Amino acid sequence: MQDQSIVSALLLGLLEGLTEFIPVSSTGHILLAGHFLGFESTGKAFEVLIQLGAILAILSVYFGRLWKLLVDLPRDGRTQRFVLGILVAFLPAAFIGALAHDFIKTVLFETPMLICVMLLIGGVVLLWVDRWALQPRYHDVMDYPLSLCLKIGLFQCLAMIPGTSRSGATIVGALLMGADKRSAAEFSFFLAMPTMAGAFAYDLYKNRDILSAADLPIIAAGFVMAFISAVIVVRFLLDYVSRHGYALFGWWRIIVGGAGMIALLMLG
């Protein structure tokens, strides 16, 4: 039984890393896959805690950029404004996530049909936005005004509903507010760091009394696979969306959401 759980954790960790930073909803994919695999984690903590692998992946890929930001922060006004913008964008989701944590984990996470519906809706929205001839005004994340950062942060709150996608919500929000495709994805990367780290820390705290040593190998397996696959995605995603946009991810959401809905109706 433990071996089966490890195999499932490896598969789900791979899925987490591949989908965390693209606008298809990693949580939605993991919850649906876990449902059909019969995978149950303690307190639904696995699905959140393995995000640490994706966090470390983006930290490793962006280490040079992050180090420069840290060095420039005390003396460079542009860097200070950017870091403040990330904080402003992070706060709405942090506030709502803390208030609604139990409802999200016990109700929304346990409703696979809702996940399929949100995947379908998000796919249609992504295709619509990708085809809309928007005229971007912002091309560099370092120049995003604080008002834009706040609006993107409010869009991120939609991702409390599994199947919506944190990266999808922030990218669509940024595009609608005047960002170009590459900088929208890059801002989503930076915003992911405090958002996912905060979710990890809060979920670990909330589940501290029910997690046991038996859960550690399963979480560790998922974490390692999430890290490896997320590194690959982060290295190539910006160049891909700059050339091809987001249509592929919109169609992928529609296919997965539709297939999941059919499977749930047929199999339960």
From TrEMBL:
Query: Which keywords fit this entry according to its UniProt record?
Result: Antibiotic resistance, Cell membrane, Cell shape, Cell wall biogenesis/degradation, Hydrolase, Membrane, Peptidoglycan synthesis, Transmembrane, Transmembrane helix
| Domain of life, per lineage | Bacteria
Please name the GO terms of the biological process aspect recorded for this protein, alphabetically. Answer: cell wall organization; peptidoglycan biosynthetic process; regulation of cell shape; response to antibiotic
Q: Where in the cell is it found?
A: Cell membrane
Q: What is its EC number?
A: 3.6.1.27
Catalysed reactions, as listed in the record: di-trans,octa-cis-undecaprenyl diphosphate + H2O = di-trans,octa-cis-undecaprenyl phosphate + phosphate + H(+)
Its record classes its membrane topology as: Multi-pass membrane protein
Q: Which InterPro entries match?
A: UppP (IPR003824)
Q: Main subcellular localization, coarse class?
A: membrane
Question: From the Swiss-Prot or TrEMBL record, what is one GO molecular function term?
Answer: undecaprenyl-diphosphatase activity
Q: Which GO terms describe its cellular component?
A: plasma membrane
- Give TM segment ranges: 49-70, 82-101, 107-129, 187-205, 217-238, 250-267
* Family from the record: Belongs to the UppP family.
The note filed under miscellaneous reads:
Bacitracin is thought to be involved in the inhibition of peptidoglycan synthesis by sequestering undecaprenyl diphosphate, thereby reducing the pool of lipid carrier available.
Identification of the protein by name: Undecaprenyl-diphosphatase
Q: Which organism is it from?
A: Mesorhizobium australicum
